[in-house]
Design goal:
The complex is a heterodimer of chains A (456) and B (711).
Chain A: E1 3-10, E2 30-31, E3 34-35, H1 36-46, E4 51-57, H2 59-72, E5 78-84, H3 89-96, E6 105-110, E7 113-115, H4 119-129, E8 133-139, E9 164-168, E10 175-180, E11 187-191, H5 192-198, E12 200-204, E13 207-216, H6 217-226, H7 233-243, H8 254-281, H9 288-296, E14 304-308, E15 315-317, H10 321-332, E16 349-350, E17 355-356, E18 361-362, E19 367-368, E20 373-374, E21 379-381, E22 384-385, E23 390-391, E24 396-398, E25 401-402, E26 407-408, E27 413-415, E28 418-419, E29 424-425, E30 430-432, E31 435-436, E32 441-442, E33 447-449, E34 452-453
Parallel strand pairs in A: 1-4, 1-6, 4-5, 8-14, 16-19, 17-20, 18-21, 19-22, 20-23, 21-24, 22-25, 23-26, 24-27, 25-28, 26-29, 27-30, 28-31, 29-32, 30-33, 31-34
Antiparallel strand pairs in A: 2-3, 6-13, 7-15, 8-13, 9-10, 9-12
Helix pairs in contact in A: 8-9
Chain B: H1 2-17, E1 26-30, E2 51-52, E3 55-56, H2 57-67, E4 72-77, H3 81-90, H4 92-95, E5 102-107, H5 114-128, E6 135-139, E7 142-144, H6 149-161, E8 165-173, E9 184-188, E10 195-200, E11 207-211, E12 219-222, E13 225-233, H7 235-243, H8 250-261, E14 267-272, E15 279-281, H9 285-296, E16 316-317, E17 322-324, E18 329-330, E19 335-336, E20 340-342, E21 347-348, E22 353-355, E23 358-359, E24 364-365, E25 370-372, E26 375-376, E27 381-382, E28 387-389, E29 392-393, E30 398-399, E31 404-405, E32 410-411, E33 416-417, E34 422-423, E35 428-430, H10 441-446, H11 453-465, E36 479-481, H12 485-488, H13 491-494, H14 501-521, H15 531-558, H16 563-577, H17 581-598, H18 604-625, H19 629-645, H20 653-662, H21 668-679, H22 687-691, H23 693-710
Parallel strand pairs in B: 1-4, 1-6, 4-5, 8-14, 17-20, 18-21, 19-22, 20-23, 21-24, 22-25, 23-26, 24-27, 25-28, 26-29, 27-30, 28-31, 29-32, 30-33, 31-34, 32-35
Antiparallel strand pairs in B: 2-3, 6-13, 7-15, 8-13, 9-10, 9-12, 16-17, 35-36
Helix pairs in contact in B: 5-7, 15-16, 15-17, 16-18, 17-18, 17-19, 18-20, 19-21
The chains are: A alpha/beta (456), B alpha/beta (711).
C-alpha cells in the first residue's frame, strides 16, 4: 500500500502535567506498563502499515522517543523520528516535515490513541472513493467526551470538552459539514450549495473526530502551502477542505488534473446537456461531487469522506489525566485484548518475577510489573503497578496507577491516584485522586485528596 | 355562544371516550390557491376548474379523497365560488351520490388567504361544529393516489400519545429538481420525524442557519424533499389560526410560526410517502406541466385519462403513450408523436406534427401545424401553418393561419391571434386588461382574484367593440400583459418551457460565485457582515468607480490643455454618478497627485516639483470644485489618505499643503479647521497633523497679526 503514516506524537502536553515531564514525553506515558505510542504502532502494524514517521515536538522529547523506538521495534517497523519546534500546531508540524512525504497518500494518526479500530479500513475507504481527505469518526462516549480540543493536545487556547458537530450525506460516506460545538454560538450555518448538491444532510452530534485522517499528499501540501496561517489540521485544514469541496482550489494530482482536464475539455461540450439534465433529474446521486463538477465544467471538486467506526470498537485519546486513568483501567479491564498480554485465570497479570508477601491479594483487572515487590497483607484492586516497585506492608491500592521504580511505604492507602516513576510515599500516606510527580517524596502520615504533587 | 362551546367541548369529550375509529374522516379542500401564479387565466375561471389533461383539477382531488376513504369533504370556495358550485352541482359528485361520501361547499368570498379561510371555517364551526376532529387539509389542485387511512391513524395515535402533535405534513422525495416550486430546506428528527426547521428557499445561495438547540440530537437536513401540501390537522390548527389572526400563509406563517415561536410547544410531524405513490400540488405553470406529464406517464394511476374516475369520458390508450378519443378525426398525414392526448371531437388536419402535448375536446387544428409540449384546452381553433411550442392555450382561442407562439406563451380564454402574428416568448395574453392597481407584491399575493374581475369583465365588451385595441395583429383580439420588472427574471422559472440552458448555467454560476465570495468574506467565526456594511461598501465601490473614471477623464483631457474642457468632462461624470462637488474635488486632486507620482522622478524634491507644476497648471479645475471651506477640508483629508497609501508622498504632505495654500487652492480657514478636527483624533492619525504643525502655527500667528493690525 502506497501509504505513508505520520504519527503526531506531540511533546509535553500541559493537560497531562505532572504525569509528563522532561524525562517522560507524552508519547512514552505508560499504559499498562508500556508507552502509549506502542499501542499506536501495534495498531498500525496490524494493518500492515510499517512505513512510519513519528513527529515529536521538541528535540529532547524526540531523542527520548527515538531512543525508545529504536530499542523496542526497530526490527519490525521502518520508523523515522522527526523533531519539530514546539507549539507549531499540527499543521505546522506537517509543514516542517513536508519534505519527507513522498507517498501518494498520507495517513495521519495522533500518537495518543489507544484503540482497536483498524486504520487500514480508513486507508481503504480513502482509496475507494479517491478522496482528498478521509476522516475517521467514532461514537462519542456517552459519559461526556474527554476531548481536549486541539489535536495532539497542544492547542491550549481551546476550551476542553466540546462536541463535534458533523454533517454526513445520506449514505454516510461523505463529510459535508464539521464544526466544533463550542464554536457555534447560536446557530449553525450550513452552506446551501453543498446541501443542494447532496440533497440530504444528517447533522449528528453523537460522533467524534478520532484524529485519524487520510490525506492525499498533493492536497495536503497544497493547502499547507496556500494557507500559511493554518495551524491545526482539525480546526483549519479539515474544515477548509470540507467547505470548499465543491469548488476545489487544491488539485489532487498533477497528472490526474491533466488527464481530467483533457477529458473534460472534450466531453464537456457533448456531455454538458446530458449532465445538466442529470442534475435536474437526480441531485442526490451518491457521487454528487462528480455530477456537480461536470455540471460546472470549469470547477473541480474534491471528496471528503468518512469512515465511521463500529460502536463496539474501543477508542480513547490519552489527552487528559482522567483519560489516562480510564485507559489504564480499560486496558487491563474490559478491553484487555488491547494490552497484548495474556491474562491469568484471575483476570490479572502478575509478572513471574514479582514477589508477593503473605496474605496479600491482587484482585482481577490488576497488573503487577516485572521485579516488583509487595509486602504482607496488601490489597491491590483494579490498578496497574509498574516494574521494580517496592511496596511495603498493609498497603491498599485501588483504581490507581503506580509507575516503575516507585516506593510506597507501609500502611499507605492509595485510591484513584497516579504515582509516577521514582516517586516515594513514606509510611501511612493516604492519597485520594492525587497525582504525584516523578521523583517526588510525599511525607509520612500525610493525608491528601485531589491534590497534585510537583516540585514547581 | 357559550352554550355552543360547551356542546362542542362535550362532544369532544365524548369522542375521546368513544372509539376514535368511528370518527368520520373529513377533509377540507381549498378551492382557491390564493396566489396569482395562474393569472390571467384565473381571472375568468377558478384554478381548480382548469383542465389538467382534459379533466378539471378538482376532480383529481375529490376522486383521490373518495378512494382514500374520506367520508365528508368540505370544498371551500372563494374566488369564482359560483362557478365552482355550479360545476360541482352538475358533476357526478352530486348527481351520483355516493352513500359513503358527502361533498359540501363552504363559501366565503371575502377570504383572501388560507388563514382567512381557516378562520372562517373556525367561526362557522362554533355554530355548526362540522369539523369533528382531525381532518385532512388539501388544496383543490392536488393530484395524488396515496392512501390516507393509515396516515390518519398514525396521526391519531401520535396525538393520543402526545397532545402537542397537532399536524402531520406529507412530504415526498423529489424525483427531480423542479424549479417551479421553491425548493424547501427542512430539518427533521430522523427518529420521530418531527419537523424542526422549515425554510422556503428564496435564494439557493448562502448559508442555512439552524438553531443550536436543534443539534443536541441527530438532525436530518433535507433539500431533496417536496412538500405535498397535504396535511393531517387536529382541531387545534383551526383555533391556532383564530388566535393568531395575522397568520395568512399555511407554511410561511403557520408552520414557521409554530417552529420558531414555539407556540404552546405544539409540534408538527412529517410523513414521507413511499415512492410508489404519487402526490403533487399544482401551484404554478411548471408544476402544471410536470404533473400533466406524470399523468400521461401514468404515475397517478388510477387517475389517468383512460380510466373514468369522475364522470370523465375515458380515452383510449395507444402505443407510445398516445391517448386518443374514439371520435377524434385525424388526417393520415398528421404525425402524432409520443405522450400526446387528443380529446373528443377534435379534428386534426394534414401534415401536422403534434407531440408531447395535450389537446382538449372540440378543437379544430388545420394543416401543417406544429404543436410541441403545449396544452391546448377545449374548443380551440388553430388554422393552417401555425407553430406552437411550450404554450398554454385556453378555451375558445383562435389562432389564425401562420401565427407562431414562442415558448412560454399563455393565451387566456377566447383570445384571437392574428394572421402571421408572432407572440413573443413568455407573454401572457388575455382579453382582460392587466389590473393596474397592484400596490405591492404582497398585495398581489393575497388579493382575491375576484376583486377586480367585475370591472375587468365589463372591459371585455369594450374591447370587443373597439377591436382596434388589439395587440395581436390586425385581426386578433387580446392584451399582452406586461410583466412586472422584478418578475421578469422569474418568468422562465415558472413557465411550462423547459429551463433554458443558459439559465441553468446562471444558477450554478450563482451558487459558485456565492462560494467564492463566501470564502473570502466570511470570517472564521461564521458571522456574516451586517447589511449596513454591505451598503457602505456599495457606496464606496461607487465612489471607487467614479474616482477611476475621473482619473481617466483627467488624463485624457489634459492632453487638450484646456481647463474648461476638463471641467466639462468631469462634470458629465459627476452627474452620471451623482456625486457632490467635494467628491469631484477629491477625485480630481487624487488624479493630479497620481499623475505627479507616475511622472518619472528620482527624488522627493523632483516629485515635489512635479506636483507643484501640475497643481499650478490645473488649479483652475480644482478651484472650480473648491468653493466651500468644507470641500477644501475634504481635499486635505483625501490627500491624507493618499499619503498613507503612498510612501513617497507622505513626507511631502506639509510642503504640498503649504503650496496649495500659496496658490489659493485651499484657504487658511480650511487648514486651520482641519487641524482642529484632527486634534481630537488618535495618535496614529496625527502623523500628518504633526507634519503640518509648523504651517498651522504660522497660519495662526499670521491671522492673529492680521487681527492685531485690523484692531
Amino acid at each position: 500500500m502506497d501509504f505513508q503514516v505520520v504519527i503526531l506524537a506531540g511533546g509535553f502536553s500541559s493537560y497531562l502535567v505532572p504525569l509528563v515531564s522532561k524525562e517522560v514525553p507524552k508519547a512514552l506515558l505508560p499504559v499498562a506498563n508500556r508507552p502509549v505510542l506502542s499501542y499506536v504502532l501495534d495498531l498500525l502494524e496490524s494493518s500492515n502499515l510499517k512505513d512510519l514517521i513519528v513527529v515529536v515536538e521538541g528535540e529532547d522529547a524526540a531523542l527520548k522517543v527515538g531512543g525508545w523506538i529504536s530499542s523496542a521495534c526497530v526490527d519490525r517497523l521502518h520508523v523515522e523520528v522527526a523533531a519539530v519546534a514546539e507549539n507549531v500546531g499540527t499543521a505546522g508540524a506537517l509543514r516542517a516535515i513536508a519534505h519527507h512525504l513522498t507517498a501518494k497518500d498520507i495517513l495521519i494518526v495522533s500518537g495518543d490513541i489507544v484503540s482497536d479500530i483498524p486504520p487500514g479500513a480508513v486507508a481503504a475507504t480513502h482509496r475507494r472513493h479517491d478522496a482528498a481527505v478521509t476522516v475517521m469518526l467514532c461514537a462519542q462516549p456517552v459519559s461526556g467526551p474527554s476531548e481536549s480540543g486541539g489535536s495532539g493536545g497542544k492547542d491550549k487556547t481551546k476550551k476542553p470538552a466540546c462536541d463535534d458537530i458533523i454533517g454526513l450525506d445520506s449514505l454516510k460516506q461523505f463529510l459535508l459539514y464539521i464544526a466544533k460545538g463550542t464554536e457555534i454560538k447560536k446557530d449553525t450555518r450550513v452552506k446551501k450549495s453543498i446541501l443542494c448538491a447532496a440533497g440530504k444532510m444528517e447533522i449528528r452530534s453523537d460522533l467524534m473526530d478520532s484524529h485519524i485522517y487520510a490525506f492525499k499528499r498533493a492536497v495536503l501540501q497544497e493547502v499547507l502551502d496556500q494557507k500559511p496561517a493554518f495551524r491545526s489540521l482539525k480546526q483549519d485544514v479539515l474544515p477548509y477542505l470540507v467547505r470548499t469541496q465543491l469548488r476545489s482550489d487544491v488539485f489532487s494530482d498533477q497528472s490526474n488534473v491533466e488527464e481530467n482536464g483533457n477529458g473534460n475539455g472534450k466531453n464537456n461540450m457533448q456531455n454538458n446537456e446530458v449532465v445538466l439534465s442529470q442534475i435536474l433529474s437526480n441531485a442526490s446521486m451518491p457521487s454528487f461531487h462528480q455530477v456537480y463538477e461536470s455540471g460546472l465544467g470549469t470547477r473541480k471538486t474534491h471528496k471528503c469522506c468518512v469512515y465511521i467506526a463500529d460502536e463496539s470498537k474501543y477508542f480513547v485519546r490519552l489527552n487528559s489525566i482522567q483519560a489516562f486513568m480510564d485507559v489504564n483501567r480499560d486496558v487491563i479491564g474490559e478491553s484487555n485484548h488491547l494490552s497484548g498480554y495474556s491474562f491469568s485465570a484471575h483476570h490479572n497479570i502478575v509478572h513471574p518475577s514479582a514477589e508477593l508477601g503473605s496474605k496479600t491479594t491482587v484482585g482481577p483487572h490488576c497488573m503487577l510489573g516485572e521485579g516488583s515487590q509487595v509486602g504482607d497483607k496488601c490489597s491491590v484492586k483494579r490498578s496497574v503497578i509498574g516494574r521494580h516497585c517496592r511496596i511495603g506492608s498493609n498497603v491498599k491500592i485501588v483504581n490507581s496507577v503506580v509507575m516503575d521504580h516507585a516506593t510506597i511505604g507501609d500502611g499507605c492507602s492509595i485510591q484513584g491516584s497516579v504515582i509516577c516513576s521514582n516517586a516515594q510515599l513514606q509510611e501511612r500516606v493516604t492519597l485520594r485522586d492525587c497525582q504525584v510527580e516523578a521523583g517526588y517524596v510525599v511525607c509520612a502520615g500525610s493525608e491528601h485528596k485531589g491534590e497534585t504533587f510537583a516540585r514547581k | 355562544m357559550g352554550a355552543q362551546k360547551k356542546v362542542a367541548a362535550a362532544s369532544r369529550v365524548r369522542e375521546d371516550s368513544e372509539d376514535l375509529s368511528r370518527q368520520r374522516l373529513q377533509a377540507i379542500v381549498l378551492a382557491d390557491s390564493f396566489t396569482t401564479q395562474f393569472r390571467p387565466i384565473t381571472l375568468e375561471r377558478p384554478k381548480v376548474l382548469l383542465p389538467l389533461v382534459n379533466i378539471p383539477m378538482i376532480d383529481y382531488t375529490l376522486a383521490w379523497l373518495e378512494s382514500a376513504g374520506i367520508e365528508e369533504i368540505f370544498v371551500f370556495c372563494c374566488a369564482h365560488s359560483s362557478q365552482v358550485i355550479d360545476y360541482l352541482e352538475k358533476s357526478e359528485w352530486y348527481s351520483r351520490p355516493n352513500p359513503n361520501l358527502l361533498v359540501r361547499t363552504i363559501v366565503s368570498p371575502k377570504s383572501t388567504s388560507v388563514g382567512d379561510a381557516l378562520r372562517y371555517i373556525y367561526e362557522q364551526q362554533t355554530e355548526t361544529s362540522q369539523i369533528q376532529g382531525d381532518f385532512v387539509l388539501v388544496s383543490g389542485d392536488t393530484v395524488s393516489n396515496m392512501p390516507l387511512a393509515d396516515l390518519i391513524q398514525e396521526h391519531r395515535d401520535r396525538k393520543k400519545k402526545d397532545e402537542k402533535a397537532i399536524m402531520t405534513m406529507v412530504i415526498k422525495k423529489q424525483s427531480r429538481l423542479g424549479l417551479g416550486s421553491d425548493k424547501i430546506f427542512m430539518a427533521v428528527d430522523p427518529l420521530t420525524k418531527q419537523l424542526l426547521h422549515y425554510e422556503e428557499d428564496i435564494a439557493r445561495i448562502g448559508d442555512l442557519c439552524l438553531d443550536k438547540s436543534l443539534l443536541d440530537s441527530t438532525v436530518l437536513v433535507c433539500n431533496d424533499m417536496q412538500d405535498c401540501y397535504i396535511d393531517i390537522c387536529s382541531s387545534e390548527v383551526l383555533s391556532l389560526f383564530e388566535d393568531n389572526f395575522d397568520y395568512q400563509h399555511l407554511r410561511r406563517h403557520f408552520v414557521n410560526g409554530l417552529l420558531v415561536d414555539d407556540i404552546m410547544g405544539y409540534k408538527i410531524f412529517t410523513h414521507e410517502i413511499q415512492s410508489s405513490f404519487y402526490a403533487a400540488r399544482i401551484d404554478n405553470l411548471r408544476s402544471y406541466d410536470m404533473v400533466s406529464k406524470n399523468i400521461i406517464q401514468r404515475w397517478t394511476y388510477p387517475y389517468v385519462p383512460d380510466i373514468n374516475f369522475s364522470g370523465n369520458r375515458a380515452l383510449k390508450l395507444g402505443r407510445r403513450g398516445i391517448y386518443r378519443a374514439s371520435d377524434a378525426v385525424q388526417s393520415r398525414s398528421a404525425d402524432i408523436g409520443a405522450s400526446t392526448v387528443i380529446g373528443y371531437g377534435t379534428k386534426i388536419g394534414n401534415g401536422g406534427k403534434i407531440f408531447n402535448s395535450v389537446i382538449g375536446n372540440g378543437c379544430c387544428i388545420g394543416s401543417n401545424v406544429v404543436i410541441q409540449g403545449s396544452y391546448i384546452w377545449n374548443n380551440v381553433t388553430i388554422e393552417d401553418g401555425c407553430e406552437i411550442r411550450n404554450a398554454i392555450v385556453c378555451d375558445g382561442v383562435k389562432i389564425r393561419a401562420g401565427a407562431v407562439l414562442q415558448p412560454g406563451v399563455v393565451l387566456s380564454f377566447n383570445v384571437v391571434v392574428g394572421r402571421d402574428f408572432v407572440v413573443p416568448a413568455y407573454s401572457k395574453v388575455s382579453l382582460l386588461q392587466q389590473p393596474t392597481t397592484e400596490d405591492s407584491d404582497e398585495e398581489m399575493e393575497y388579493a382575491g382574484s375576484s376583486s377586480g374581475t367585475a370591472d375587468l369583465l365589463s372591459g371585455v365588451n369594450n374591447l370587443q367593440l373597439e377591436s382596434k385595441a388589439s395587440e395581436l395583429g390586425p385581426d386578433g383580439t387580446g392584451y399582452i400583459w406586461k410583466v412586472c420588472d422584478n418578475a421578469h427574471d422569474e418568468e422562465w422559472k415558472h413557465s411550462v418551457v423547459p429551463i433554458p440552458m443558459d439559465k441553468l448555467a446562471d444558477i450554478t454560476r450563482a451558487m459558485d460565485d456565492d462560494d467564492i465570495e463566501d470564502e473570502s468574506v466570511v470570517p472564521p467565526s461564521g458571522e456574516l457582515k451586517s447589511d449596513t456594511d454591505s451598503i457602505n461598501t456599495d457606496a464606496n465601490d461607487d465612489y471607487g468607480y467614479f474616482e477611476r473614471e475621473v482619473e481617466e477623464t483627467f488624463l485624457m483631457a489634459i492632453i487638450k490643455d484646456d481647463v474648461d474642457h476638463v471641467i466639462r468632462l468631469i462634470n458629465s461624470r459627476r452627474f452620471a454618478y451623482n456625486m457632490a462637488s467635494a467628491d469631484c474635488a477629491g477625485a480630481v486632486f487624487y488624479s493630479m497627485m497620481r499623475l505627479a507620482v507616475n511622472t518619472p522622478h528620482n527624488s522627493a524634491s523632483e516629485l515635489y516639483r512635479n506636483a507643484t507644476t501640475i497643481i499650478t497648471k490645473w488649479k483652475g479645475v480644482l478651484g472650480f470644485y473648491l468653493k466651500q471651506t468644507d470641500e477644501q477640508i475634504e481635499v486635505i483629508m483625501k490627500f491624507e489618505e493618499m499619503c498613507e497609501e503612498s510612501a513617497e508622498l507622505g513626507p511631502l504632505f506639509a510642503q504640498i499643503v503649504h503650496f496649495l495654500y500659496e496658490k489659493d487652492v485651499v484657504q487658511e480657514d480650511a487648514i486651520l479647521r482641519w487641524g482642529e478636527e484632527k486634534a481630537g483624533a488618535d495618535e496614529s492619525d496625527k502623523v500628518y497633523l504633526k507634519q503640518c504643525e509648523a504651517l498651522i502655527q504660522w497660519l495662526k500667528e499670521a491671522s492673529e497679526e492680521e487681527e492685531e493690525e485690523d484692531s
